Amino acid sequence: MALKGPMCSADFQPDPTSFLAVFDIYDREESLGVELAKYDPNDFAQLNTLMRDFYFSVKDDFFKPEHKAELIRVLAEALHDNSYDFAALVVYEYNEYISLPDTWEIHNPRQFFRNIYTIASEHWKNDLESIGRSPEPVSNFA
Fold it and tell me: Which residues have CB under 8 Å from 21's CB, separation 6+?
């Protein structure tokens, strides 16, 4: 039986961009965009704050442990793929994925997503363990 999305009957099919949706400033440049521009997503501590204040504050109550495990799994799968194009996910213009603040110049997109994996794995550790899952060490990724 396929995992269904939170509060809907559609299959839950996340991808790495699922971690970026809360940072989408499309049509919110003057509000959310101004707030997010204060942060450097290349700095691990600031990214941790971004994830805590913007992502987890919304998603922790929205996702069940199974959703969190699936998000971690798909991100790990992408990080294992040396040819996965993380740069395409963080372009600085409107595209089919997401519109991030134009001040966010993510220097190493693969490392950016490795950092997100590290932060999410630690933050959701208890939820994952509650369903018998544990994130793999980030050192396993290319």
Answer: 98
